[in-house]
Amino acid sequence: MSLDSLKSRIPDYAKDLKLNLGSVIGNSDLPAQQLWGTVLSTAIASRSAIVLRELEPEAKANLSPEAYTAAKAAAAVMAMNNVFYRTRHLLSDHEYGNLRAGLRMNVIGNPGVDKVDFEFWSFAVSAVNGCGQCLDSHEQVLRKAGLEREVIQEAFKIAAVVQAVAATLDAEAALTA
């Protein structure tokens, strides 16, 4: 199971996805930990068993045990936060924004890896999950940490391609079942 195996499963009509997957992962200038943590966390966020099964072994091989766990933790905590904060933002009654969240998110303060990497993964997962408030929050932290827009954009390029591959392969699986 690997990136090449995943690319081979993409149908011809989605050739652009195959090329983009090779580009955003195979030709990335991101440090290995940022890259593979982003790949793993967005594969989890995509909710695609096919994509996760194909990409997880390579991500695990390229991440330290601490980074592997932290990338999974980013996907988990952002699955909760993205629903909560997106809902609060979308409600017309803005008073919900003044209420205490009351949700545990300790991993954000102590992720076990460099804070910038964890923020990067949280940002990418927020792109998959479509939470504008979380995207803004994590992007601001990343910018304050000195990351350039071009680097930050790599996170949501990976998120976009992984999500598109997941949607395509899951649709193909459903159509052939």
Structural commentary:
Homotrimer. Its EC number is 1.11.1.28. This protein has a single domain, classed as AhpD-like. The protein has 9 helices and no strands. Helix 2 crosses helix 9. It starts with a helix and ends with a helix.
Measured by DSSP, the beta-strand proportion falls in under 5%
Care to count the β-strands?
0
- Sketch the major β-sheet: none
| Structure classification | mainly alpha
Separation, N- and C-terminal Cα atoms? 21 Å
Q: Which percent bin holds the helix content?
A: over 70%
Shape: globular
CATH structural architecture: Up-down Bundle
**How are helices and strands ordered from N to C?**
HHHHHHHHH
Number of domains: 1
Rg computed from alpha carbons, rounded to a whole number of angstroms: 16 Å
Q: Compute the number of helices.
A: 9
- CATH topology descriptor: AhpD-like
Look at the structure and give the CATH class: Mainly Alpha
Uncertain regions spanning at least 5 consecutive residues: none
Mean pLDDT: 95
- Provide the CATH superfamily: AhpD-like
Keywords:
177 residues, mainly alpha, AhpD-like, 75% helix, 0% strand, globular
List the topology elements:
Layout: H1 3-9, H2 15-26, H3 32-45, H4 49-62, H5 65-90, H6 106-109, H7 115-129, H8 132-144, H9 149-176
Helix pairs in contact: 1-2, 2-9, 3-4, 3-5, 3-7, 3-9, 5-7, 7-8, 7-9
Provide a short characterization of the protein structure.
By secondary structure, this protein is mostly helical.
